[in-house]
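Bit of a strange request maybe. I'm writing a small parser for structure token strings and I need a real example to test against, not something I typed by hand. Could someone generate the tokens for this chain?
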Amino acid sequence: MDECTSECLSLAVDTFLLSALRVARELNRIIEERGKPKMIVSDDGSELTSNAVPQWADRTTVDWQYIAPGKPLQNAFIESFNGRLRDEFLNEMLLSALTQA
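Reply from user aminoacidic:
Good idea to test on real output. This should exercise your parser:
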């Protein structure tokens, strides 16, 4: 999520957890399309703290900042986006699937 433009640059979906390598591939794709950011701010989820993501950040010279553990308000914009996505899209899809069944 680009906080300056409020644009969702990528929405990767998987059946379980995204791997750090998958996150790095998505970031490479975004950089090819949009250019390299100066900094990325994220939570400390396992897909973002394993070796692949910090190594990617070092390789690409992108400054990576983690919010403090247990402090989602430090990244409130993405937390709000995730909540709206879940409420407005995923719950709608689930309700639609249940009503069709």
